[in-house]
Specification:
Strand content: 15-25%
Largest sheet: 4 strands, mixed
Shape: elongated
Number of strands: 7
Helix content: 25-40%
Order of helices and strands: HEEEHEEHEE
Oligomer: single chain
Length: about 160
């Protein structure tokens, strides 16, 4: 679950609640469960404005000569295109088409696909880390403790 905190003093508010938090009480969602101590792990994550998207201004295109079969056309024109994302250094090459414009479009598409694949991989990794973090949650070393349905703060 993600929770957004904003306003004056929100950084201090969030910092005081980062770590393991214990809630003592009977869960209204699991009424027959015998547990009375429930733990949750809280940590800050970057906001959507902190995550960069691919921008066309960050891509540097290089026109190079294609290699391989193609007869006289290969040696006379720079139709292959290398697209490099400057902030990350990721580069793709397209030399399948005879048209420089088509190769530029394909190189850009390959770059976008690499970023999408990395984003998906990062999401999969974060889901796995979230699951593992729940399994490794520090019980008994809480930063805050709440009690009852009203979530009254309990002194540690």
């Amino acid at each position: 679950m993600l929770l957004s905190v904003s306003g004056k003093g929100c950084e201090i508010f969030a910092a005081n609640r980062s770590g393991s938090i214990r809630w003592i009480g009977k869960s209204p969602f699991r009424p027959k469960h015998r547990r009375k101590n429930w733990y949750v792990g809280v940590r800050p994550v970057p906001g959507a404005q902190d995550i960069a998207e691919i921008d066309d201004q960050d891509i540097k295109y290089q026109m190079i000569r294609a290699s391989g079969p193609g007869g006289q056309h290969v040696n006379k024109s720079d139709s292959a295109v290398r697209a490099t994302h400057m902030p990350t250094g990721i580069a793709t090459l397209s030399r399948d088409q005879r048209s420089q414009f088509a190769n530029k479009k394909i190189a850009r598409l390959k770059l976008a696909l690499i970023f999408e694949e990395r984003k998906q991989s990062a999401q999969d990794q974060s889901r796995l880390e979230l699951w593992q973090r729940g399994r490794k949650l520090e019980r008994g070393n809480e930063v805050r403790c709440y009690e009852g349905i009203s979530f009254r703060l309990r002194r540690l």
